[in-house]
Fold these 3 entries.
Entry 1:
Amino acid sequence: MKHILIIEDDKAIAELERDYLEISGFDTEIAKDGEVGLKLVESNEYDLILLDLMLPNIDGFELCREIRKKRDIPILMVTAKKESIDKIRGLGLGADDYIVKPFDPAELVARVNAHLSRYDRLTSIERSTSQREIVVDKLRILPDAWRVYLGDEEIKLTNKEFELLLFLASNPNIVFTKERLFDRIWGMDAMGDVATVIVHINRLREKIEIDSSNPNYIETVWGAGYRFKA
């Protein structure tokens, strides 16, 4: 049974999420503020986290950043904030999806199922598939070990960042549109848009490029998309 942590200070919303998830066969736990949520993440294993943004003690943005340092599992932000800048900021901190309140509980469950299925496919299939390491200049990608090195330094990537980099590096010098990358990495059943791709490309560049404004590995082909330069 999948174990889901709900970090939400609104009791009614937290219980609504819990009830629908438990009816759908999930085991759930509720944290009423960011500080308690972080302690639970540090001491327990979860398969997915539903994270509110407007939390007491530690807000959702800071909490997402801290969770990403410790866990590489799907994080779905659930918030009343509708502005695009908040969505982009949340995705930039490592969230996998962004759900705006008020939401349809059935849609919430559908998104949870979609992200868990996606994560399971990545961990159980792609990690077990034997692939040679990919080396380009100082960048080294080890698909079997799920690791990336820049010189002698290991670069920590989220699951989505790693899959995006691996896909691009496995298909060097081919231009992929943002739409194609979104479909390939997040899946046709994902609830999101191509802004997710832009955010993750920017985060990858910040981690693997010496100068992210003048990238050596992931190039932008204006009006077309992105390609991995090999």
Note: The mean pLDDT is 86.
Entry 2:
Amino acid sequence: MKDLIILALVIFSTLNNFAQIVNIPDINFKNALIEDGIDTNNDGEIQVSEAEVIISLNVGFKEISSLEGIQSFVNIETLLCSGNLLTTLNISQNINLVELRCGGNLLNNLDLSQNVNLSKLWCYNN
């Protein structure tokens, strides 16, 4: 019986690791990621493991109003999101970010205090 419980726990934890899906409520953002090939297993979702391998992301001019879910892209160094409908942008967990282009949005507040590696910033027309 003990072996059966251990086997069940191993199977559950393995399935749970594969099922960690990034919450991306903005359909335009999600579609842009899928179109860009981030969804490598072609299941129509973005897994945490798929997000973690991305170094550069261009989702500019896609009518995106929220980048919620960007926090799962922990290794991103370049984020291009200009020409969207963003009013807020939380990149506080994207500490590897070196370049951010967020011009031409509707941003009214941008906190970069956690982004100590950021050396290139384009944030015009907000």
Note: The radius of gyration is 17 Å.
Entry 3:
Amino acid sequence: MGRLLTRLGIFAAALSLVLSGCASAAPQAPATVHRIVAVGDLHGDFAAWRAITKAAGLTDSRGRWTGGETVLVQTGDVVDRGPDGLKIINDLMRLQREAEHAHGRVVALVGNHEAMNVTGDLRYVSAADFAAYANGNSERLRQQTYEANKTRLEAAFRQKDPAMTSEAIKAAWLMATPLGALEHQAAWSPAGRIGRWVISNPAVALIDGNLFVHGGIGPVYAHVALDEINRRVAAALAARAMAPDAIINDPSGPLWYRGLVMQEKEGSEPSTPPPSSVVDQLEEVLPAVGAKRMIIGHTPILSGIAVLEDGRLVRIDTGISSVFDGKLTYLEILDGKLLPYVVARPDPARREAR
């Protein structure tokens, strides 16, 4: 019911959208890349993001690109939970342009939380994140949206509670639709500024033998061409696909897969077929896609970056966001050598003073 009301209240406000079936190809990079820097899930922690890019020599004190020809890969989930997802997105958009001018590259992968925002699953959007989209016209837009959709909204609420008055329904909808929420979903729609950007980004990227993907590639997608994976993800995002087996929702898909880091407990009812061992999966997947290793985020490992299976699997979601209070980390791949780094977390008092 809550999901239905969210869609009625927010999406009904949007203008008719023309969904394009644009597809993202895996980013093309030179056969050999001197330096790659990979950063895992950020979940709305802008201060941590800036601390990492500065420590890695990618940006200056103002956040401008100083990485030269470095390839920066961010493996998705920059939004939700924390307050500053919009700031990070704006940074990534700008850095993509600046890096290109310096003959570098910024690759922003699609994570499951980017897909959730595009498809209207807003369970993890923080109040502060909604507020970042608000402007001086937000209250008027919210009132106008309610009046324009009042009949449908009242019908939806009364399916659950026939005794609700019009006043109670409006109050409930306003509470569920904070200022900035309508603007947020307009921006994240497939025709919106952020939605178009997410759709244009890849879900998988193979760079100098390193396969970057948010959740992972397991046996189900091992023999699907990377360009085809990116095409399917882009098409599903553009269509706001809700089917459980759509590639952006599939537990075995590249945005959600955990079979490389979590095994089913003995005696439990598996939600997906029990995965083969991590070693067996890597031996099947890596040769199939032409990679020597896979670098993933999605599942936090608070102890720090983990280089596993003789360097064939690297986990870089270290709970960077202060929501998790993990370690601020980045992975440098320098002429093929894996170099994990830990960065000091910015002092909250100093952040507040800025």
Note: Residues 85-101 form the longest helix (17 residues).
